[in-house]
Design a protein that fits this description.
eight-stranded mixed sheet, alpha+beta, three-stranded antiparallel sheet, HIV Type 1 Reverse Transcriptase, Chain A, domain 1, Cathepsin D, subunit A, domain 1, 384 residues, 22% helix
Length: 384
């Protein structure tokens, strides 16, 4: 016989009590359960990009690989913190890779921002360390890496051996055992490369950043540019090698230019000078006046001035004495044969040359026509 509680019409019926968190006024109806299921599905479709994929810092939880796609170098990050494998949209354009459209996918970044993508590169083939592997990659606008191998790639090649300390990965690809060695940490030093290598590396996507540095050269130690024997000689005769500040003293045999008797004094007109040459001549004349090497003169003789550019860029101040030479009594002393002089240089190791800086201004022109104690000024600087 059934008990009284089972047949009593006034007994309490069984009830189910439920508490809805964050929304106590709603019951868990079929509509609410469907909305929760849709939210869970959307959460599963969200992709994530880790912080390592957004920064260039070295981390123990990721491995960097350098591979080639077509003729371009691609920098790949093996990152267990990213949900999918991604490839940079800039690299896709650079290498002209084929893409296919996909459903819109949302990618959540580590900084809280989000990106959307609707393209992917199917079966991208990468050549790395003499081996190749293929994988699908989602196209995404990201930096600084060209590609990310995320958890989907790691799960597809599991089981694998990952030595995060030594940065090595060992896995199977189409029945083949592959071992990839990650990039070591770059040394903290700089080395120069040629412009051709910079151009080729940039064209092949092997350079990801340029840094402009200011080079401050260190001052070299001051050393003598001459051997000790030559330096001792220059020191002993430093009065000979220094620039003269005064005219040479009167000597027993002074320089003289004898003229043909009855010759008319040479008084030539100055040449036409450019403004640059005119300023240079005035500066050099002023320096000679201040040094006392020339003096103002009212001599009837006058010869024009020429400027010849020297190898070091300075100007050689010289006077055109060709007309004066025409009325000069030539010295009949025979000139040595050049072949004999060159033969005498056999075995010589040190050679010097005379630098005629200012023509004949060093010859003491104020007494260049000395004869029997009589002085006659030979030349004067023409007015400009």
């Amino acid at each position: 016989m059934p008990g009284h509680l089972e047949v009593c019409s006034k007994r309490q019926k069984p009830q189910v009590n439920a508490i809805v968190l964050n929304d106590l006024d709603r019951e868990l109806s079929d509509e609410v359960l469907n909305e929760l299921a849709v939210e869970d599905k959307l959460h599963e479709e969200f992709s994530q990009l880790s912080l390592n994929a957004l920064s260039s810092l070295n981390s123990t939880s990721c491995i960097k690989l350098k591979a080639r796609v077509k003729d371009k170098v691609i920098l790949i990050l093996v990152d267990s913190g990213s949900t999918h494998s991604f490839i940079s949209s800039k690299f896709v354009e650079l290498a002209k890779l084929h893409t296919v459209p996909t459903s819109t996918r949302k990618v959540k970044l580590a900084n809280g921002e989000g990106l959307q993508t609707d393209r992917m590169v199917p079966q991208l083939q990468c050549y790395c360390q003499g081996q190749s592997f293929t994988t699908d990659m989602v196209v995404l606008e990201m930096q600084p890496y060209d590609a990310i191998l995320g958890c989907d790639w790691l799960q597809a090649h599991s089981p694998m051996e990952c030595d995060w300390k030594n940065r090595t990965i060992k896995f199977f690809e189409e029945g083949r055992t592959m071992t990839l060695q990650g990039l070591p940490e770059p040394p903290l030093q700089l080395s120069s490369i040629s412009a051709t290598k910079v151009y080729n590396s940039t064209k092949g996507n092997d350079i990801w950043a340029f840094v402009l540095l200011d080079h401050t050269p260190t001052k070299p130690q001051q050393t003598s540019p001459h051997p000790d024997e030559i330096q001792n000689l220059l020191t002993a005769y430093k009065d000979v090698f220094t620039d003269p500040k005064i005219l040479p003293p009167q000597r027993t045999y002074d320089h003289a230019i004898p003229l043909i008797p009855g010759s008319i004094p040479i008084n030539s007109r100055p040449y036409h000078y450019s403004p640059l040459h005119k300023i240079e001549i005035e500066n050099q004349v002023q320096q000679l006046l201040e040094a006392g090497l020339i003096a103002h003169s009212h001599s009837p003789f006058a010869s024009p001035v020429l400027l010849v550019k020297k190898k070091d860029g300075s100007w050689w101040f010289c006077v055109d004495y060709r007309k004066l030479n025409d009325i000069t009594i030539k010295n009949r002393f025979p000139i040595p044969v050049i072949e004999e002089i060159l033969d005498e240089l056999s075995g010589a190791k040190v050679f010097t040359k005379l630098d005629m800086r200012s023509g004949y201004c060093r010859c003491g022109t104020h007494r260049i026509l000395r004869k029997e104690g009589r002085r006659s000024s030979l030349t004067r600087i023409l007015p400009l």
